[in-house]
Each structure stands twice: as C-alpha cells, then as structure tokens.
Amino acid sequence: MSDLDWKSLPSLSALRAFDAAARHDSFSAAARSLNVTHAAIAQQVRALEKDLGLALVVRAPSGIELTEAGRRLADATSAGFGRIATAVDLARRSTGDSLRVTTTTFITDAVILPAIGEFWRQHPGIEIAFAPTARVIDIESEGFDVAVRSTTGPMPDDPRAIPLMVSPFIAVAAPSLAARVTDWYSADWLGLDTPWEREVLAESGLSGVRIREIGAPGLELQATLRGIGAAYGSEIVYRDALRKGSVVRIPVEISRQSSYYALVRSGSRSRALSLFLDWLVSTFEEAGRTDAIPT
Questions:
Q1: What whole-number distance in Å separates Cα of residue 159 and Cα of residue 70?
Q2: Which structural domains are found in the chain, ordered by start?
Q3: pLDDT tens-digit series, residues 194-215
Q4: Is the pTM value of this prediction over 0.85?
C-alpha cells in the first residue's frame, strides 16, 4: 500500500462537512446530521473551497447546489466515506458475535426458522439479523455476512459460494381444488406471468394456461393453501404443507430444480460466522435427505 501525502490533503473535518452538505443539498440538514451548527458547516465548506481554490457549492432557493467541481468531489467523498463505513462495520462485526444474513422469504420459512432455535440454544450469545428478500443484494457493499439464495441453473462460479442442497420442482394444489379438477390445463395457476414461467409450464404440457399473479411470494403460498389455484416450485417450499395435508401433489411433472447455496462475504471469518455456516450446511443437508421428502 503506497503512502499518502497527508499534508497535501484538506482537513478531514472539512471533507466530512462537505460530504454531508452534498448528500443533503443543505447546510442546515448537514448540520443536523453531524450534530453541529449551520455556521460550522458553512465555515468548513468555505475553508475547503479556499484550500482547493475552487467553488464547490452555490446557493439555491431550496438549499445549495453543487458546481461541476463539487459534483466530482462529492462522488469521491461519498465513495470513500462509504467504503470506510463498510470496512469499519465489518471490522467491528468480525470480532463480535453478530451476523447479518439475507435470504429468500420461502427458504427462511421452510428451512431456517424451524431449526434456528436449536442453533441459539447451542450458541445463545450469537445475534443474527435475517433480512428476507427476493432482491439481488451485493453483500459486500450492503454489509451482509451471508446471502442464502437459489438458482434454477448451475451453481455460481464464485469462490465465495457454498453449495447447500438441490430440491426438485413439484406441482401442488389444495386438496379441495385437486378433488374437483380433472384437467390441469383448465385450472388457474399461481405465479408470475413471465416468459420463464411460461416456458416451464409449456415443458409440462401446459402451454397457454391462465396464470394469476397474486403478488408477494407469501401471498402466493397462502392463495395455494386456500385453493385459489395450482402452483409449482421447489419441493422444500411446500414440504411442511404436504406433511400437514394442506396441499397435495398433483399429476403434473415439472422438469426443473432449485440449487440452494450460501454466498459468504470476502475476508476472514469470525467465530460466529464459522459456527453459523457449519450449522447452515448441516441443516440443509438434513433437509435434503431423500427420506425427509413426503411422497
């Protein structure tokens, strides 16, 4: 790592004040965010402008606006302070016993929540904040330790990825719906009306069926349980409902599968992270056992 010429750099206090002003487009809002006075922010920004010999901000009716030079500097301070904040957060958590884990809603309900109690009984001091979402997350920039995700294609070619399990796709319906439907082509199917969903259904001889879009994944599952339509997806998602008899498998073959994996942040692993990953792999191995799958 090359040395920095600290003497050539402006005051970090001035850069912090400018960064806050640029983020909020206002000296007043920046002052509130840093718990200082409006005059203190203005003084620091003016000192920074004098140091650089450039105008960075101009007054505007609603606050301030950045000049071209100000925008370039704001991009740099935002990226720089953002990376510092992320690195500090990771450093603090690498020596602590707290983790941030992002998962999908379905896999949280189906695999993680039923078993997490045992993990906490064994490791009561480890705090885990789960963030279920279908959104693609950059775990490095957003400060997550682990992302549990699935793919219907090959596992990602990423050294951070740990394979967890493979689950076949199945088609299901509530018993009440299964009892009255003889032709599944004429039934309503729940899901998203996308080219990918249409392709999967067409492979199963269901090209052109009606797809009802319910919305959130949790609502789609509840609609299936209530007999609003048939559904398909990873077997692990429907396993608990199959065991309870809330849904039954229907005679539609789906030739796809979900491959589940954990994506782990780069860098050294804390004790808490290592213990959680060991538990996660073991839990998914148990869930993936053939004799655990209802018929």
A1: 39
A2: 8-93 (1.10.10.10), 100-163+258-292 (3.40.190.10), 167-257 (3.40.190.10)
A3: 898 899 999 999 998 999 988 7
A4: no
